[in-house]
Every structure is written in C-alpha cells, then in structure tokens.
Amino acid sequence: MNARPKKSFGQHFLHEKRYIERIVSSIAPKESDTVVEIGPGEGALTLPLLAVAKKMTAIELDTDLIPGLQQRAATVGDLRIVHSDVLKVDFAALARELGAERLRIAGNLPYYISSPILFHCVEHAAAIQDMHFMLQKEVVDRMAAEPGSKVYGRLSVMLQLACTVTPLFTVPPGAFRPPPKVDSAVVRLVPLPPERLPQGDPAKIHAVVKAAFAMRRKTLSNTLKGLVDEASIRSLGIDPRARAETLAPADFVKLANVM
Fold first, then answer.
1. Are 38 and 86 a contacting pair, CB within 8 Å?
2. Cα–Cα distance measured from residue 30 to residue 1, given in angstroms and rounded to the nearest whole number
C-alpha cells in the first residue's frame, strides 16, 4: 500500500523506475561500502541500493513509514533504520558505530530543509566519502554556480570550499508522487582531501561569507564593515568596491584570515 505523503515533512515520493535506476547507477554502491540513506520514504531508492550493497542504514523521521519499509527490505538485504531527525545525527559517531572509515550518503531531501541538511553534512565531511542527493534544481544550480552567476551565493561558496560539486541530471515533477511544482536534480558532492581544505578559522570564514552576501547589491567595503577594513581588503588584491558575487571561494578565505 502506498503511504500518503505528508506536507509537514515535505514528502514527494520518487516512483519512476528509469530515474531510480540512474541514481543507483550514479552511486554505484559496492558490498564493501557503508551506505546511509537520508529519508528513505517508501523505499523506492532504498531497495535497489540495498539489493546491490546488501547492507545499509536509513535515517527516517516519519514513524508511519518505518514498519512498511522494514517489511519490504526484509527479503532484499540487511537494512538498519535509525528513527531520528537527520540534523541530530552525528555522522562521525555513526561511522564509528558501523565500523566504517567513511560513509556514502544518499537521499531525496525534503526541499524545505535541504540547505540545513547540506551544511550539517559538510560539518561531518571528514567521515563522508561522497554524497548523492536529489534536490530542487534551483538549489543544485546555486550549489554549483560560479562567481559572476546570478545564483552564486553563500551556499555556492560554503559547499565549494568543502566539496567538489557535480550536477548529474534533471528529474521532472512527474517522477514523484505527488508531483512537486518545480524540477528536481541529482547532484554529487565529494568532500575535498585535507590538503585542499581552506586554511583558516571555519567560524571566521562563515562570518565573512554570511556578511558579504547579506546585501548583494552592496560593495565589500559596506558588507564587511566591522569585520575587514578597506585597507586589508585592498592588501589582498581585492577591490573594496567589488561585490561578493564576483569573488572566488578562495578569496573569502583570504578575507577571513585578515579579520
């Protein structure tokens, strides 16, 4: 029996087989991998992944979905279900608990809370091998945007400082039940190796990026007032009259380091 999607959880259940197969093919799980799915729902992606991985973990908040998912998974493989809000899951602790060096994370994320989930995953990036997420296409466009793009912003910078972001393919509304009002897209995120991570205080980097994009039409000398003065901005070879959307992610690290 199909579950009734709950608006409160932002549920849109993927059902079209060809897109499910493309996602599984993109992830290409192996039996040796430790796969963790966020929000398995009815198991449309869970069961095909489990059939290949043989063993995996799913994080589900909706208690009504868990019994049916457990039942369907029983004949496919070993599925462990964690009943929790994903924002409260410590992925580093979960990796240790599962005896894994790093996790492979996947999920069709609720659109209304996708950004907090992305930032939460990035905080635990050292425990993650890669991530494959279904998101609103507009969000994926922002994640992968380059400097100068109209959609380049805080999300672009913070994710690109932590991961390689690769949009994979678009999924139309009709592939879901109920159909969302927007196109979706699948994206791959691969955490950067330690030697490529920003050399600086993460809290300062976050503060600079947040302030710089708080008022997009304002220049850096205005948005960063109180954080970085004009002379310091200029000393980095950055024009204080420039706007945040023209700077590369690495430029924000330089600004944070002279705070």
1. yes
2. 30
pTM listed for this prediction: 0.89
The full set of domains in the chain, from first to last, is: 7-195 (3.40.50.150), 202-257 (1.10.8.100)
Q: Would you list which residues are annotated within the binding site?
A: 12, 14, 39, 60, 85, 108
HSE, side-chain direction, 13 A CA sphere, residue 159: 31
**Tens of pLDDT, residues 58-84:** 999 888 888 988 999 999 999 999 999
Nearest to 129 by CA among 45, 35, 39, 56: 35
Alpha-carbon span 49 to 51, nearest angstrom: 5
Compute CA distances 203 → 82, 180, 209, whole Å: 30, 35, 10
**Alpha helices per DSSP H over the chain:** 17-27, 46-53, 66-73, 91-97, 114-123, 137-144, 154-160, 202-212, 220-223, 230-235, 249-257
- Residues 132-168: tens digit of each pLDDT: 999 999 999 999 999 999 999 999 999 999 999 999 9
List binding-site positions for S-adenosyl-L-methionine.
Answer: 12, 14, 39, 60, 85, 108
Determine the straight-line distance between the first and last CA of the chain, rounded to whole angstroms: 57
